[in-house]
Predict the 3D structure of the following.
Amino acid sequence: MPDTIKGMDFILADQLTPDQLLEGDYIKVDGEIVYVESITDDATGDTYYVTVTNDFSESDIIEFNYNTKIELYALIDSDE
């Protein structure tokens, strides 16, 4: 029986506001799916700062307004 490597694919799961995000989520920012490391907000809750990491282990802090819709992605096994 030959060994096979199962692939993983991302599918669009939902659109969330920043206060609904969780650490460990995958979101799309500037056309790239990134991993959410941490989430903080300002004292008023109007602005959220989301630290994300891309496939190259490069981190960035993205600023979102409280009502911004963010695409949430789920990682699934591909059958190919």
About this structure: The domain at 19-77 is CATH 2.30.30.30 (SH3 type barrels.). Residues 51 and 61 are 4 Å apart (CA to CA).
